[in-house]
Design goal:
The structure is a homodimer of 210-residue chains.
Chain A (H helix, E strand, L loop, with lengths): L6 H19 L4 E2 L1 H8 L3 H9 L5 E2 L3 E3 H12 L7 E4 L3 H8 L2 H4 L4 E6 L8 E2 L2 E5 L3 H7 L4 E4 L3 H14 L3 E4 L13 E3 L2 H13 L5
Chain A binds a DNA duplex (24 and 24 nucleotides) through helix 3 and strand 2.
DNA sequence: TAGATTGTTAATCGATTAACAATC
DNA sequence: TAGATTGTTAATCGATTAACAATC
């Protein structure tokens, strides 16, 4: 692999993954960068560049074998492992994620759930009982947890992130509307839902802007 | 305003907005691009460039007036208007969004809710009754709807998007894990939740990559 | 006024696209 | 083999950063 892969490339990998999954469903065996370009909307050149960051997965005159490439991309993305998760904040959004059984099937089991709301503590979601957030650090120290999910309020989020880091999570998946401050070694993936609504509205208000 | 604002800039506007909101809460009256840079993590140069796409909001020797700039950015983002929305798909995620009363307060009322699941049809969420998705086009033709929210399955999403376009929505806020095909005049803001988890895992698996 | 800080031009950096020799 | 298509280098484009004159 090249020394440093840019975020632009990394963020396209899940997109390739989605389209390849679709191609598998359609029973397509192999595909050229040109045909993939037509579907996915990136240039064929970019597709070849992106993939070649990780190795020569194609074959001249033939293109890319769909299943092989799908497997490669899964492996590059680290999706051939399992990642245990905990979720803190079981309001509407937290419960939606906690109920989303697809994550379990994808190899992302949620093994701990935490909230400060006494009405939620004790509630069982997907067989896991919601605990008091006070127990978070203890739980992290006695269980191997790879990813911490934050679906708390903006106000609570930073302190939960601190606890997750202290507890040794390897990454944080953040849904609270702020930018968390964590040590550089801990990657954070943030889903700024409201930001995307704001950008969408910008494009509605400024239609000339394309 | 400059002729064409790049998406990179547009996507930073909601970030400026969030930080300015924070500054207002803290009672900060004015701020230099340098100090804002320290907080937000963009370079001071980039901040000045970004803002100057839309006008000279600062004052030499003083910086930017926080409240004025906040108001300007809201106006640029089009957040000084109201946008009516409908939501299609009231599973876990759809219900989480529909229950999120903050959107109502922000000027984004959800005025129609639709699903195909008979168990959900008739359910009331925030005083709105979930209707059969069959009624979607009719509803759109008899109500002014600015934004369509799609929280259906991947399989249903494209056909719902088509109906929304036919019904005259001005933009689509998509949470289904696919790239919708719509006429170029209709902006789509997609929240690819699972893609962000995949990218996060990439960074966990490749820690040298920064 | 002197100091601070913007607005804006120029320089740099990085990402995307084009081109084509290599090769299946 | 001939045709197709990759892998990869070079060219272009656009975004970010640096620099500094303008100005409050």
């Amino acid at each position: 692999m090249k020394n440093k892969i840019s975020d632009a490339v990394v963020n396209r990998l899940p997109v390739y993954r989605r389209y390849l999954e679709e191609l598998i469903d359609e029973g397509v065996e192999h595909i050229s960068s040109n045909e993939l370009s037509r579907r996915i909307g990136f240039t064929a050149s970019q597709i070849r560049q992106d993939l070649n960051n990780f190795g020569g997965f194609g074959q001249q005159g033939y293109g890319y074998n769909v299943e092989d490439l799908y497997r490669e991309i899964n492996s590059i993305l680290g999706l051939d492992h399992e990642y245990s998760m905990v979720i803190v904040g079981l309001g509407n959004l937290g419960q939606a994620i906690a109920n989303h059984t697809r994550y379990y099937k994808m190899g992302f089991p949620i093994i701990g759930m935490f909230d400060i709301n006494p009405k939620l503590i004790g509630l069982k979601i997907n067989d896991i009982e919601v605990q008091d957030s006070e127990n978070l650090v203890d739980f992290l120290k006695t269980h191997k947890v790879d990813i911490g999910i934050i679906t708390t309020t903006k106000e609570a989020a930073q302190s939960i992130a601190d606890k997750m880091v202290e507890g040794g999570v390897k990454g944080i998946w953040n849904f609270a509307p702020l930018d968390l401050k964590v040590p550089k070694r801990i990657p954070v993936g943030s889903v700024h839902v409201t930001d995307t609504l704001n950008s969408l509205v910008y494009h509605i208000v400024h239609p000339d802007q394309g």
